[in-house]
Amino acid sequence: MLKLVATDLDGTLLHSDGTVTDRTRAALTAVEERGVTVVFVTGRPIRWMDMLWVHVGDHGLAVCSNGGIVYDVAAHAVRNARPIPVHIGLEVVARMRTGIPGSTFALEKTTGFAREPTFLQRHEVPDELEVGMLEDVFDEQTVKLLARHEEMAPEDFWQATERVVGDLVQTTWSSVDALVEISAAGVTKASTLARLCTELAVAADEVVAFGDMPNDLAMLEWAGTSYAMANAHASVLALADHIAPAHDEDGVAAVLEKLFDLPAR
């Protein structure tokens, strides 16, 4: 019996324009009304999430920053965090500056965003932005270190990062540009979801998970039932138990309607 739905957001639950459709909202509400917990599992930081909550009913739980934070949507509060130890983070930066010249860095914190001056922004700069040397802005609230390279291909940069610092931290990538997401050792979407499920007394075989990118692989492998979106990365398509329709076709909603015998919309 399924007790929990875990779904990635970008490329999975959300359409390409970042919206949640009425069909998807209805499916999520219907499964929750049956006592099934919905958990949004994403690489997104919490600062990118406020605009989304209203579209999903302002309820549920969220695993953000690739497992670095568990967020209580209804309370609009961090439930718990798994930060990167400061000395480890600074060692990662030092190794990458030497081993992968051209790497630049930014930080996702429970309190906001920070970057060094050479890290080029791809999104609107938030009001709480800190800019400074990593040694000055890296603190105990840091849950994700972002590393970017302007010249390398995305997967090549990730592989190089893994070789240089993979013994210290957890690395992954899910971007179309060379952006590697770095968490504390052992911190992934899957490990934090597993911790949360233990708290909720939900077993892995009672979880159905949806995803589309390499940072979803461990979560999909852990869950008792897994779905790759039709638009997913090849590695995700190869690993998942099943393939759902594409995100722009309301693939998560379509599967939930079948699994829980909901009226199709």
What does this structure look like?
The chain is globular and about 55 Å long. It has ten helices and 14 strands. It has 265 residues and is of the alpha/beta class. Helix 2 (22-33) packs parallel to helix 10. The protein has two domains: 4-81 and 188-259, HAD superfamily/HAD-like (Rossmann fold), CATH 3.40.50.1000; 86-184, Hypothetical Protein, Haloacid Dehalogenase-like Hydrolase, Chain: A, domain 2, CATH 3.30.1240.10. Helices cover 31% and strands 25% of the residues.
List keywords for this structure.
265 residues, alpha/beta, Rossmann fold, Hypothetical Protein, Haloacid Dehalogenase-like Hydrolase, Chain: A, domain 2, 2 domains, six-stranded mixed β-sheet, 10 helices, 14 strands
Strand order, sheet with most strands: 5-4-3-2-1-12-13-14
| Residue share in β-strands | 15-25%
Q: Which class best fits the helix and strand makeup?
A: alpha/beta
At the fourth level of CATH, the homologous superfamily of the largest domain is: HAD superfamily/HAD-like
| Architecture (CATH level 2) name of the largest domain | 3-Layer(aba) Sandwich
Bulk shape: globular
Give the terminus-to-terminus CA distance.
24 Å
Query: What is the rounded Rg?
Result: 18 Å
Q: At the third CATH level, what is the topology name of the largest domain? A: Rossmann fold
Number of strands: 14
Kindly state the mean pLDDT as a whole number?
Answer: 92
Number of DSSP helical runs = 10
What is the element string, with H for helices and E for strands?
A: EHHEHEEEHEEEHEHEEHEHEHEH
Largest sheet: 8 strands, mixed
Q: In the CATH hierarchy, what is the class of the largest domain?
A: Alpha Beta
Are there runs of 5+ residues with pLDDT below 50, and where?
A: none
**Overall domain count:** 2
